[in-house]
Amino acid sequence: MIDKICNTTEKMFLRYGIKSITMDDVARELSMSKKTLYQYVTDKDDLVKKTILLHLQSMDSICLNVCMSEGHAIKQILKIAEMMINMHKELNPGLLFDLKKFHPESFKIFTGHRETQMQNQVIENLKLGIAQNLYKKDINIELTTGFYMASIEHCLSSEVGLLNSVPFKEKYAYLVHYHLWAICTPEGLDYIRQNMTIDFQPNI
After folding, report:
1. Which of 64, 93, 113, 122 is a plausible cystine mate for 145, CB 3.0–4.6 Å?
2. 3-state DSSP of the chain
């Protein structure tokens, strides 16, 4: 039941942000009483924490499955990007702001995960792409990883005003292009030109 509660809550948070959603809203969406809801979570802060943890576990599982089943570095990036876009079709740009301001412990969990699990995944992808002659051998892996992760966070947040009115799908598609065009060898660029689908063509 807790997974169902968190999955439903995640969809509501993604669409409306965290601050605007009350426990009454969640209970109503689940067609249960608030008393029943409180049998699984102690308060909204606990609900946010459990939802964040389940979301991160889901993302880890997705990325791990892609990396285990796909040995091509660029394909890994594109498949993960496609799944990210599908998971965030409705994304409130104030989501991370709400998390940071009103639920700092959960935000710390989110950023801690970013600095460990996500960072390692990007680094391993860069090393794989270099070994496959798809990425340039002279790229700075640490800086490239940091810039890519920071850019993903800005796709999710509302801190950059110029990006607020742009849908997540368009921002993320542009980021994927931006990242790959910066690091790919001619061989990697040839692969992108031949295999990048229309879903990842940014409006430029």
Report:
1. 122
2. CHHHHHHHHHHHHHHHCCCCCCHHHHHHHHCCCHHHHCCCCCCHHHHHHHHHHHHHHHHHHHHHHHHHHCCCHHHHHHHHHHHHHHHCCCCCCCHHHHHHHHCHHHHHHHHHHHHHHHHHHHHHHHHHHHHCCCECCCCCHHHHHHHHHHHHHHHHCCCCHHHCCCCHHHHHHHHHHHHHHHHECHHHHHHHHHHCCHHHCCCC
Query: Domain total for the chain?
Result: 1
Do the beta carbons of residue 175 and residue 151 sit within 8 Å?
Answer: yes
State if pTM tops 0.90. Answer: no
First to last CA, the chain: 44
Length of the chain as a residue count: 204
The predicted-structure confidence for 45-58, as pLDDT tens digits, reads as follows 999 999 999 999 98
CATH code where residue 186 lies: 1.10.357.10
Residues 53-72 have pLDDT tens digits of 999 998 888 888 998 899 99
pLDDT at residue 112, as a whole number: 87
